[in-house]
Amino acid sequence: MADITRRFGWRHLRGAPTAHVRHQRAGRLVHDGPGLSFWYRSLTAALSEVPVDDRELAMTFHARTSDFQDVAVQATVTYRISDPGVAAARLDFSVDPDTGVWRGAPLEQLATLLTETAQQHALDVLARTSLSAALVDGVAAVRDRVAAGLAAEPRLPATGIEVVAVRVVALRPEPEVERALRTPAREQIQQEADRATYERRAVAVERERAIAENELASQIELARREEQLVDQRGTNARREAEERAAADAVRAEAEATRTVRLAKAEAQAAREVGEARARAQAAWLRVHAEVDVATLHALTGTRLAENLPRIDSVTVSPDVVTGLLSRLGGTAGGPSGEPA
Question: Could you tell me which residues are beta bridge partners of residue 310?
Fold first, then answer.
């Protein structure tokens, strides 16, 4: 929509770069082009504003396939007005000189023309295609047929319209038919998923079995090694006991030999000592046998004196002296009691 300003009975229009403005006064073209800006009088001006940018037209329509199934087609047509003068002459793009608003609905007319033309070609191609083929290759076929049909449509160049691109967004059957068509695929996908699940479980079970077998083999090997260890320990203990017993036997035999030798030595020593004592005693007896009686008495006294205890001091009490004197006195008087 053009930007119009009022000033003292005059109007000023400022157009957009994407809008082609045509200004006519008294049937004569005064201004013609995009992005114009000019002054005019509203009572004598006839204005038209034609958009020249690319526009997207979304359309949805229903069609029927060769097997009598309804499908919904969603498409988008990109177009532009390539000849604004022709379009302004064929369609009502006039705007109010005071407000700049279109007096008619030219874009709706263009949308109706494009939609009906595209729908006609889409219905024609889908009517010769089965539902399964349409769902597989129908999007490309409908797009190519609609693009070719719009390019060959004579009304569009005559109106100044150029089709830039055609896109078919979706081609879908009715919900019940779509669910029926999805069921086999879903079942197949579910079967594949179940098969994958079963295979995964089988692999897991196989791995668990392998792990269990490895653990059992490890336990068996460990038990075998423990048995070998026990046998080796028993062998070592038996060998150690045998060696200890042999060592004890050797030690006992050595001790017995030493004891016997010691006993023999002691017996020999005792025998030699006895023989020496006997010889000494015999010699002593021989010596005493040759000596006279007085000499023997003297030796006996000497031996007795040697065996007497040593007397360091003698204490004589009055009682002892008195007794000794009395005895001495009695001895001196003789048997008759007289003094000697």
Answer: none
